[in-house]
Design brief:
The protein has 272 residues and is mainly beta. It is built from three helices and 16 strands.
Length: 272
C-alpha cells in the first residue's frame, strides 16, 4: 500500500518538523564579570560609559567581535580584574541559575562587655595590688550571607533560532570590609606615686560587615551570538572569585564609588 501526500499536507508536515526542531534547541550562556577602577577617560577609550553609578545600566547589545575588543581594552586598564567567568547550557523556555558563591558567616547580636574584679580574660592592674578583668562584647547569634556572583536566565528561542528573548537577573555581592560599632572599654589607673592615667581594658570590637551589591532584572531580545553589556559601580575594591575575603579590612564610610563593574553576557542558540 502506497501513501501519497498532497502539497498542503507536506507543508504541514514540514512545519511540524521545523517546530519540533526549533523547540529542541538549547542555549549556551557565556558570561564575564570585569572590575576596573572608575576612570572616566579609560572607560570612554574602551567604548564604555556608565549612565549612573547608583544602579546597574544596560549598555547595549553588541556583536561578539566588538565585545572582544572592549574586553581587550578593559584588560589594559591598570587594576582590572576578571572576577567571574561562568559558562553553562540551558534549554529554551527553562529558567536556569549559575552561581559561584561563598558562605560569609558573621555575628549579629552580642553580649555587652563587662568589667569584673574576678579573674577574667584581660586582667589590668588599676592600683597597686588591685586586679580587675574586662570581658569584651561576645557574639551570641550569627547570620550567613552568600557572597559572589549569581546569574539567573530564562531564554526563549524564536522559530528560526536567530532571536532569543532573554529574562536575566545578574547579582554580584562582595564583602567590602567591617565597620566597628563599639569603642574600647577604659579605666583610670593609679601608679605607686598616685599619678592617674587612662588604660584600655579591652578594645571591645563589635564588627559588622558591609557588602557591595550590584544587581538588576532585565528582559531583552538578542540575536544569537550577540553580547549584552551591563555596568554598575562599587564603593570599594572587589575581589576576584579566587580571592578569600580580607577579614582585617575596614569598610569605607563615604560611600563614594571607586570601581566600575561590567557584565558581558553572550547567548548562543544551538541544536545538540
Amino acid at each position: 500500500m502506497k501513501t501519497y501526500h498532497t502539497p498542503k499536507v507536506l507543508t504541514l508536515l514540514f512545519a511540524v518538523a521545523a517546530s519540533a526542531f526549533a523547540q529542541a534547541k538549547e542555549v549556551q550562556i557565556n558570561a564575564k564579570v570585569i572590575s576596573v577602577p572608575l576612570d572616566a577617560a579609560a572607560l570612554r577609550d574602551a567604548g564604555l560609559a556608565l549612565e549612573s553609578t547608583a544602579a546597574m545600566s544596560n549598555l547595549g547589545i553588541i556583536p561578539a567581535d566588538k565585545a572582544a575588543a572592549m574586553l581587550a581594552k578593559l584588560e589594559k586598564i591598570s587594576g582590572h580584574a576578571l572576577m567571574y567567568s561562568p559558562s553553562f547550557v540551558t534549554r529554551s523556555g527553562v529558567r536556569s541559575t549559575s552561581e559561584s558563591i561563598r558562605e560569609f558567616i558573621y555575628p549579629t547580636e552580642f553580649v555587652p562587655a563587662k568589667i569584673s574584679s574576678e579573674a577574667g580574660s584581660k586582667p589590668v592592674q588599676i592600683a597597686p595590688g588591685q586586679v580587675i578583668a574586662a570581658t569584651p562584647s561576645t557574639p551570641r547569634s550569627f547570620e550567613m550571607r552568600h557572597t559572589g556572583f549569581r546569574l539567573e536566565v530564562e531564554p526563549v528561542i524564536n522559530s528560526d533560532g536567530t532571536l532569543i528573548e532573554m529574562n536575566l537577573a545578574p547579582e554580584l555581592v562582595a564583602f567590602e570590609g567591617f565597620i566597628n560599632y563599639s569603642s574600647p572599654v577604659k579605666a583610670v589607673a593609679a601608679d605607686k606615686e598616685g599619678k592617674l592615667s587612662e588604660v584600655v581594658l579591652t578594645e571591645n570590637h563589635v564588627l559588622q560587615p558591609v557588602f557591595c551589591v550590584v544587581k538588576s532584572t532585565i528582559g531583552v531580545s538578542m540575536p544569537s551570538g550577540h553580547v549584552l553589556v551591563l555596568g554598575g559601580a562599587s564603593g570599594g575594591s572587589l575581589p576576584s572569585a579566587a580571592t578569600k575575603p580580607d577579614l582585617t579590612r575596614q569598610a569605607k564610610l563615604d560611600g563614594k564609588p571607586t570601581q566600575a563593574v561590567f557584565f558581558f553576557i553572550q547567548v548562543k542558540a544551538f541544536t545538540p
